[in-house]
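During the second year of the project, the team shifted from modelling isolated chains to modelling whole assemblies. The rationale, set out in the original proposal, was that interfaces cannot be judged from single-chain predictions alone. As a representative example for this report, we include one of the complexes processed in the last quarter. Its constituent sequences, exactly as entered into the pipeline, are reproduced here:
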Amino acid sequence: MMRNDPIKHVFIWPAVLVVLAISIFPLIYSLTTSFLSYRLIPPIPPRVVWFGNYVSLLQEPRFWNAIYTTTLIAFIAVGLQYVIGFAVALALNARVPGERLFRVALLLPMLLAPVAVALVARMIFNPTMGPLNQLLGKFGLVNLPFLTNGHWALGCIIAVEIWQWTPFVVLMMLAGLQTLPEDVYEAAELENASAWQQFWGITFPMLLPISAAVVFIRLIESYKIMDTVFVMTGGGPGVDTETLTLFAYQEGFKKFNLGYTSALSFLFLIAITIIGVTYLALLRPHLEKLR
Amino acid sequence: MSGRGLTGLSPWGRRLVTAACLVWCLISIFPLYWVIVTAFKTPPGVVGGPTYLPFIDFTPTLQPFIDLYQGIRGAFFHTFLNSTIVGLSAAAIATAIGAMAAYALVRFEFRVRLGAGLAFFLLALGGYLLFNITFGFTRPQALLLAFPVALAAAILANRLPLPGPILGNEDILFWFVSQRMFPPIVTAFALYLLYSEIGRLGFQLIDSFVGLTLCYVAFSLPIVVWLMRDFFEAVPIEVEEAAMVDNVPSWRIFLGIVVPMSMNGLLATFMITLAFVWNEFLFALFLTNSKWQTLPILVAGQNSQRGDEWWAISAAALVAIVPMMIMAGLLSRMMRSGLLLGAIK
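Output from the structure prediction step:
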């Protein structure tokens, strides 16, 4: 039952005001700035260039490189997180021995500061002092260029992302698994359905809505990736691992090219929105079929 | 593998699954173990190649921590204090006002006309341009003037019978949650410019407690509202109805009945928000420079400042990590009681 009491405004307005102020102010500010040619260093008075910033950005190879890198990291990392995370959740749900210990161990990585995690990763991937190269050295692979070769560095960043965020998938899928009704499985068992058939016939489709939500959240969050890359490679070697956020930071905070950076962040916002809407549109028929 | 057990698996399959879990667990734990042992190593103990076991492989030392405390590698103690103060206050404020909003969305009915929302945005944008270009106010002044005008006009417009759809509580909730989709760089960069222009008017926001906390509160609110709504929905409405029969005012129902009943949820939400603020990097990077610098910035800076001094870097990373390890322990105990189940529905 919904009540109607004037006090409801006292309850909701503080939160609405804070979010409005912190989201609308910057939105208007950077939207208007993105149509200007505006630099702090050297200080030139702002000049209206309309879509000039957007046009030069779309012609900039470094921008497309950043989009490509970010997309690559996001899709590969989230895909693997989902597969590994779902598998671990299924195993934990099946009451493997020592399940409680696993739970604490699993919760840990995602609560740690990505900056600190990236520093630890740098140590582990270190060519002379790191344990990973020593381990691989025993198999005859000596001094792999973990962070100094573009492809390897991308792989390392993806590995760190998977390490840190698979627990989130496990947590959500585990919670989803625990809401599944028992009787469906009992019926399947009477029909002699194998475990494999039960998974594809019952578990997977019933968890599709929550899977969709988990993948969506992780995908959007992965597109924002910055701290891990900032510490691990700084975008290097060259610009091989430069993500969108890092590119915007370099342009805005190192070169103080304000109009350009505002345009960049708006393109970023548009890209995220397109990805989000496409994802939801692709998924909608599958989700509705279940109802 | 079914959803409820490894019933269809042979004993060997079961062992295989357990082993796979163990492997993943080891992968999860090893980096943590590595940072802990490295933090207790002496410089020669690190440079000489990887060693694994304290007292057997190398002799542990407390020197990296003593260096940290003495401030040889930056004002660590001060920064730790900053992170704690900003984290606790931002999490407390966000949880408090977020919980209020979530309760309002669960128990009261709201109707917002889409037209009023659009009017707000257009008036804010138009008013800003008008005040800035035509009347020659500075940019932050123009924004501060346009905001209340647009808000007042939108509230009035909401009472008019405008055409277009009417948005309900679900849509307001969606608006809150959708704020999380925003790439933070858009806000961080614009806030940095805005804060520095406000600073020129004489009100210091960059590198200040107010500026940083305000921004963290705004960015935590979507999660808080989302999580708290589920906890409040689980509170049986009969209790509240009984209180209403006795004419207890709504704010006393909220503070006296609903809040105590969802204390666990509030606590979990508070801790999740605290972890989020504690680990946050991008906003701190833009909005602080020395006085209110937080731990992630200082830890990230260790890397470039003095080269690869891993023993010291490990100690620094450990300081940032340990409080969150304790929280993981606490949260996992709450998780076992099925607390976070409701949060995902």
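Residues 64-289 of chain A form a domain with the MetI-like fold fold (CATH 1.10.3720.10). The mean pLDDT of chain A is 84.
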